[in-house]
Amino acid sequence: MRGFHRYLALGAGLAAAFPLGAQGLAITTPQASMKFGVLFQPQYEAIGNQTLDGTTQNLYMRRMRLYILGNVGDKWEYWIDTDSPNMGKANADGTRNGMGPNGNLILQDAYITYKFTPNLKLDAGLTLMPLAHHNFQGATSLLGVDYSPYAFLSSAGLGNNVGRDTGLLLRGFAWNHLDFRLGVSEGKRAKEVTGQAIPTNNHVASNNAMRVSGRLQWNFFDLESTANAYYAGTYFGTKKIFSIGAGHDQQDDYKATAFDIFLDWPVGNDSVTFQADHWDWDGGTWIPTLTKRKNLFSEAGYRFGATNLMPYVRYEFQRPDVETTAVPKEDRLGGGLAWWIKGHTSNLKVQYLRIKPTAPGVSLNDYNQVNIQFQFFYL
């Protein structure tokens, strides 16, 4: 019996040190904490093509993430998460992404946070840079299936991974209504150039200026969050949120400007959610592949509290200054149905989009995109 009591005491100690419940798995001490979480998004996709016949079908893991976060003392916080995006999805040559011995595990976010006050924090490391509301939404709490394809158009040219960059991000709140974010980051680095005809053109790598990003959001009623670095795509009417925001991102002669509006409002036991985000992109000579264009993303949904079902509609467009096959004028219209089984912890979404690209002098196909995604998120 003595041995049994020892095992019982050991089990009680482990349970206290590693509590597993609604808030996830955590290690806590008087001076620090560490919390663990996971995200799984298995997904089916059927999508056509603007120039080719037929439909591509994939059954793959859209995201598979591991989270580690916590605090050290009262002033320091940290956040780390990995991802294996699009694991198993077919590439253009027919090979499967992320399969085989090398895999595709990446470091998605990794930053430490110094908390000056509860309403003023400084992040340092690899994190999202501010622009539009949709850019700063967490992938775990989107309303529909995935982000707009127009949300992170500068990432490739700046050498980023879906809007992330290494640098500093100051974020905070003022007057119980203003949400502000200011980032300074690495951005694109210049190549080494020697032997130019004009000596002043000689420079070394990393000689160019930093990338600067900023965003302001005015919340007319409740703040979205005073603790989380990311916004949600829907709050299920748990708050009364109506906000307008604007952001700007620039390095050298590349610049992007965004404006957005977001609404999440309770209607009895139901709730309604709406947002619209508009971007003006201009890569300049710094990102020559990012030609001038305007893009819009919008969505609206109504959640029925009795069933946790939310039908929603979605409309997006692209309006380039110069329309080409690679960058056509484009409209995306459709919608879907989200079943919030347990909010953002577990849900099932079915989405359909009709995509209509046009460009002068070429014949492009209108095509369909269908996605079915299940999410399991535990943090």
TrEMBL record:
Keyword entries, A-Z: Signal
Pfam families tied to this protein = Porin_O_P
Say yes or no: keyword Signal present. yes
Q: Which segment of the chain is annotated as a signal peptide? A: 1-22
> InterPro entries this protein is in?
Porin_dom_sf (IPR023614), Porin_O/P (IPR010870)
Keyword Signal found: yes
**Record protein name field:** Porin
What top-level branch of life does the organism fall under? Bacteria
